[in-house]
Description:
single chain; 232 residues; alpha/beta; Rossmann fold; seven-stranded mixed sheet; three-stranded antiparallel sheet; 10 strands
Amino acid sequence: MGQRKEQRRPFNRDVEYWNDFYKNKFFMSEPTAFARTILPYLKPGKKLIDVGCGNGRDSLFFYQSGINVLGIDASDVAIGQLQGKAKEGKLSFLCGDFTRQPDEAETYDYCYSRFTLHAISQEQSDLLFQHAARILKDGGVIWIEARSVHDDLYGQGIPLGKNEFLFDGHYRRFIEKKGLKKELEKAGFSVVYMEESRDFAPFQNERPAIIRAVGVKKGNRRTGGQGNGDEI
Length: 232
């Protein structure tokens, strides 16, 4: 009963943790390696939604590279800090539930999810993929980077369910490659790239085990730069 109750908590289960994080901790403003890696596959003028945008460093990077961006996050502190950087029609930020927002009347070319899947439950992940499939255009691309079950943090803290733990004040769920591929395909994506490595996101002395995945919404299958399935 305790495990199921934890899984069904609201999307902003850790909002207090993340609000404190963005209030009190220094964080980097440089774009992540993942954002820099995928940029050559993004076309200027296209629309991208950054789910779980955090401090917005990748959202800002994409905007500065000519992409129209909506960043969405559950932390009202993070979003509040970013509102002054918004540019009408080009760069905007929303505090809310990215498994259900923005409105489906708006369509996007790209959905960018970096270090968000391991902060939400399996149920929420399924909702996110289903929602992404609804708001992406045919041939739209979802870009994913998340911690793997082979990460050194796996197993630390209080177990809550399959591959999920409460540690250091907040929730973490670790991702399996086969499961992720199956979930994306069920939501209507063709998985054109998936790889796991400890070289994707090194930080100081840490080398986390990271999965990168690219899914294309089934339709005309055009990816805006990766239609032939080339690896990133």
